[in-house]
Structures are given as structure tokens and as C-alpha cells.
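Deliverable D2.4 — example input (C-alpha cells):
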């Protein structure tokens, strides 16, 4: 169970020496309780404190990493039931299942669907993260053939090997050895063989049970066999069961510190109707699914899942931001206009989109205002004449343009006079209030 700030405080030296960068041991203890700092920052912590806090600070849901390199993905490590309490940590791993009963054409199409799934949405790269090969036939030879093909064509895509047949698993996993795959399908019958294979190939074990009681018994069994990294399938299939089981598992792990369910959940949501499948996948993303395995990856469906995932896994307490910079939109020249805005993502994407629509090459100065929109940033004293002048001067943009003119958002027209005073040699122009008026405004200037 997680320790409270006061319980942690009792374990600290209580000298208030400030070496950890906090004014008091109590302040540091409170940060530790919120998992915002590491105990290592206190050089005088006793061995007893390290042991107690180390155990207590281990995440209630063990993190697992699938795959290697840039495309590796993590699940688990979650700390909260509700994202208004704390951000959900690792976005649900969206995985496309490929069965060994499917034709070569279907297999080739699904591989292509994974490779072409990446999209850029609000500045983030989103894609189908992983592949699951499924031994639907029960035939070890057929499964091995599929494993060879997938390992060859999806080299760096994290993989889940799904079979309850240890012989089929033995053949297939050899093609993913050293790539942190998940070996899914471990149950009470094949426990010893699957545990041995997972250990031999350093795989995460996917434990499959029928119901929550059977699942906790199995997890304890695999712990006894020396397995540390697992993902859990309670056997939930319907939407109702998925919500119930995923919630009970998450609640038991986080609120009760129940280590027998302290692992990421994997949900298989195959449906014959893609719309229905997208809906159930969305439900898993919203309700604690660490990994969701789907059966088809149409682009429209991906977009639905990606958008849900992106919304669930952003921090509601931190506005989405883009980097402070001067962005060139189109083939800009020295005479292109220069607009300024704040770094709230939504503002940036709307304004830059309207500039693109105008087809007039334009520079957009995006100023760091901690992710606030223009009016909010102005009201909060973060988008002031002094700060804008400082940003523009430090950017050096004045040396790259023919006419030193800065176009302000119309909502902060009030800043134009004081900005002209602070930005010597610059002309300050008031632009449109609404982004949708930008194309007409830029075109009228160019005419
Ligand atoms: S470094 Fe340790 S002893 Fe010093 S104030 Fe921080 S927590 Fe207390």
C-alpha cells in the first residue's frame, strides 16, 4: 500500500537540511507521497527508509515494456482510478490481431495496415502499436509460418504471440526472441511449459483465465514459478464484463494494493462488425485496458480509437502545448507577414490551419504562455507587451524580415501601443479577432 506523507515523514532524518531541494523534510515527504520526486534526492535517508519506501513506492500496477527501440511501448505503471486525480500514464497499446487461418492476402493486407497506420494528430504521431499473431488453427506448423512472415515484415513492431499450445509457442517465439514479446495464452494446464518458455526468451507472460478468481489464483501460481512480468486477461468479452473486470482489477491494485492483480490488463475485442469493434475498443481505452487487440484496422476506425486514446491519456491539469518558436508556414520569404499567437495547441493548430488555407506564405511566432489561449494568457499576465517584445527580440526574427511588422491577434489590440514602445523600430498591426478571418485578411494584404 502507498504510504501517506506523514508516514513517509516519520522515516526521513527530520533535519530539514534542504539538500533535497525542499525547505523541510515534511515538504519532501509530501512530494514523495505524490510520487513527484525520488527518495534518492535525500542523501541522508537510512537503509530502513530506503527499503520501506522502495517497497511502498513500487507502482501498484507493474510496468511492462513490449518491443525494442523507437517503437517499444509500455503498459502498466498507472497510479490512479480517475484522471482528474492524476494523469493516466501509458496510452493503451492498440494491437492488430492476425490469425494463422487467414489467407496470405489478408495477412499481407493486415501487415500493410499496420505499416501505414501512422497519422499526425495535434502534433503527436499515432499508430497501431503492436501486432498479435493468433494460433487460431491450433496447428504449430501454420503458426510458425505466420510468425516467420510477421517477424520478417514487421521487424521493429512489438509482438504478442497468442497460443495455448506450448509446442506452437516454442516454434513461434524463437522468431521474436530478444524483442520483448508477450507470450499470451498461459493457463492452469500449460503453466509449467509456458513459464519456462517466457523465462527462456525473456518474454512477458500473458495469463488467460476464465473469471477474476481463477485469474488471481493463476497469477500467484506464475509468481511461484518465478515469473515477474505479466499481462492479465480475465476472459471478459462483452462490454459489460470488460468494464466490470477491468474496473475491479484496477481498483483492487490501486486502492487495496492487491499484488495478485497488479499487472496491465489485455482485452481481446474482436467483433464481426467493425463499428461495434471500434466501440468496444474505445470502451477498453477509456476503462483501464493496458493493451487492446482488434481484428481490423480500417483508417476511419483507427482515427476513432486514436482520438479517444489521445483524449484519455492527456493530462487534464496541463493544457496541451506546442514549442515556442517562429514557424514558417509555406515558402516564406523576407517579405512574408509575421503573426504572433500563444502556444496553446488548439490555438496553434487552428491559426496555422487558417494560414495554410490562405495559401499566403506566413511566419507564425508562437510564444510560450504555458499552454494558455490568447485572452487567458493576456489576463494572466503571460502575454504582455514586455514579454512579447522580449520574445521577439531574442528570436532574432527582426534580422530575417524586410519590414519589421508584427501582427497581433485582434483580441489583444489593447497591447499595440505599449508594444510599439517596447519594440523599437517595429510597426505593430492589429490582425483579426477570430482565426477564421485570417485567410481573407492575409489575402487583402497581399492584393
Ligand atoms: S535532504 Fe533529507 S534530511 Fe534533508 S531536508 Fe531533505 S528530506 Fe530532510
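Example output (designed residues):
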Amino acid at each position: 500500500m502507498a504510504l501517506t506523507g506523514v508516514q513517509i515523514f516519520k522515516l526521513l532524518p527530520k533535519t530539514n537540511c534542504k539538500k533535497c531541494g525542499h525547505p523541510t523534510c515534511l515538504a519532501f515527504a509530501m512530494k514523495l507521497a505524490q510520487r513527484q520526486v525520488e527518495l534518492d534526492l535525500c542523501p541522508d535517508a537510512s537503509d530502513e527508509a530506503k527499503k520501506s519506501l522502495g517497497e511502498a513506492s513500487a507502482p501498484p500496477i507493474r510496468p511492462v515494456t513490449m518491443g525494442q527501440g523507437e517503437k517499444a511501448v509500455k503498459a502498466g505503471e498507472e497510479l490512479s482510478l480517475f484522471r482528474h486525480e492524476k494523469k493516466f500514464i501509458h496510452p493503451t497499446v492498440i494491437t492488430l490481431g492476425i490469425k494463422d487461418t487467414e489467407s496470405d492476402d489478408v495477412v499481407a493486407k493486415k501487415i500493410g495496415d499496420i505499416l501505414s497506420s501512422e497519422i499526425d494528430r495535434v502534433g503527436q504521431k499515432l499508430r497501431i502499436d503492436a501486432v498479435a499473431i493468433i494460433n487460431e488453427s491450433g496447428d504449430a506448423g501454420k503458426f510458425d509460418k505466420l510468425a516467420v512472415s510477421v517477424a520478417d515484415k514487421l521487424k521493429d513492431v512489438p509482438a504478442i504471440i497468442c497460443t495455448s499450445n506450448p509446442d506452437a509457442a516454442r516454434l513461434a517465439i524463437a522468431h521474436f526472441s530478444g524483442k520483448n514479446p508477450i507470450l499470451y495464452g498461459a493457463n492452469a494446464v500449460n503453466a509449467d511449459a509456458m513459464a519456462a518458455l517466457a523465462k527462456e526468451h525473456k518474454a512477458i507472460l500473458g495469463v488467460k483465465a476464465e473469471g477474476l478468481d481463477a485469474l488471481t489464483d493463476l497469477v500467484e501460481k506464475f509468481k511461484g514459478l518465478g515469473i515477474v512480468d505479466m499481462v492479465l486477461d480475465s476472459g471478459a468479452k462483452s462490454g459489460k464484463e470488460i468494464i466490470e473486470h477491468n474496473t475491479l482489477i484496477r481498483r483492487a491494485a490501486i486502492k487495496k494494493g492487491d499484488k495478485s492483480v497488479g499487472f496491465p490488463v489485455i482485452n481481446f475485442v474482436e467483433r464481426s462488425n467493425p463499428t461495434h469493434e471500434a466501440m468496444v475498443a474505445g470502451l477498453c481505452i477509456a476503462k483501464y485496458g493496458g493493451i487492446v487487440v482488434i481484428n481490423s484496422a480500417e483508417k476511419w476506425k483507427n482515427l476513432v480509437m486514436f482520438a479517444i486514446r489521445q483524449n484519455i491519456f492527456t493530462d487534464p491539469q496541463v493544457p496541451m502545448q506546442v514549442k515556442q518558436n517562429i514557424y514558417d508556414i509555406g515558402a516564406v520569404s523576407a517579405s512574408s507577414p509575421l503573426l504572433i499567437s500563444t502556444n496553446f495547441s488548439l490555438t496553434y493548430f487552428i491559426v496555422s490551419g487558417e494560414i495554410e488555407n490562405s495559401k499566403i506564405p506566413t511566419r507564425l511566432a508562437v510564444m510560450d504562455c504555458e499552454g494558455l489561449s490568447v485572452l487567458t494568457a493576456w489576463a494572466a499576465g503571460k502575454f504582455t507587451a514586455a514579454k512579447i517584445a522580449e520574445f521577439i527580440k531574442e528570436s532574432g526574427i527582426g534580422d530575417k524580415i524586410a519590414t519589421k511588422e508584427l501582427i497581433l491577434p485582434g483580441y489583444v489590440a489593447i497591447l499595440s501601443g505599449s508594444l510599439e514602445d517596447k519594440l523599437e523600430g517595429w510597426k505593430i498591426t492589429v490582425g483579426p479577432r477570430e482565426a477564421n478571418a485570417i485567410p481573407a485578411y492575409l489575402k487583402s494584404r497581399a492584393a
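The mean pLDDT is 94.
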